[in-house]
Design brief:
With about 160 residues, this protein is an alpha+beta fold. The protein has 2 domains: about 10-50, no CATH class; about 70-160, Sporulation related repeat (Alpha-Beta Plaits), CATH 3.30.70. It has helices spanning about 30-40, 45-50, 70-75, 90-105, 130-140; strands spanning about 10-15, 20-25, 80-90, 110-115, 120-130, 150-155. It has a 4-stranded antiparallel β-sheet.
Length: about 160
Amino acid sequence: MSFYNINAQEVIKKDTLNGTPLTITMDSKVNGVLTDLEGKCDRIKEAELADANKPTTPKVEVPSKPKSNAEICRDNPKILGYKIQVAVVKSNEEANKVKAYFRTKFPNVKAETDASLRPNYKVLVGSYFTKQSASGDLSRIKSYFPEAISVQYRVFCVEAK
């Protein structure tokens, strides 16, 4: 059997938040370690501690307003939005022909090719935040490309409508 000798002592410390004296019973070695650690921390000056005892007004949380599109774009340059899929074709040459024809009909709408479905290629146009914002262009595009649909896709936020 072994015995451990505990050298307990009463230590009076001040609470760091409101300066209330606290009486703690602990081993003298633990008190030494805590004192060393506390000496390394940035401590509140006694004058500031006295000011902390004065009543303060409670902080009022104001609910944040919904972010504008500019704030969303600043935080996330690329977001999940919508594009209009004009056609799915079998080769890159066909995709380039579809894009060229699309640009003659809609010169203000950006067109791009997505090769993620190889050997098929998707021709995607526009960038939109929501499906509803794509619906206006979709109805005009359907007059030339009846198979056009809006699809969820990663878009550059600054390009989106």
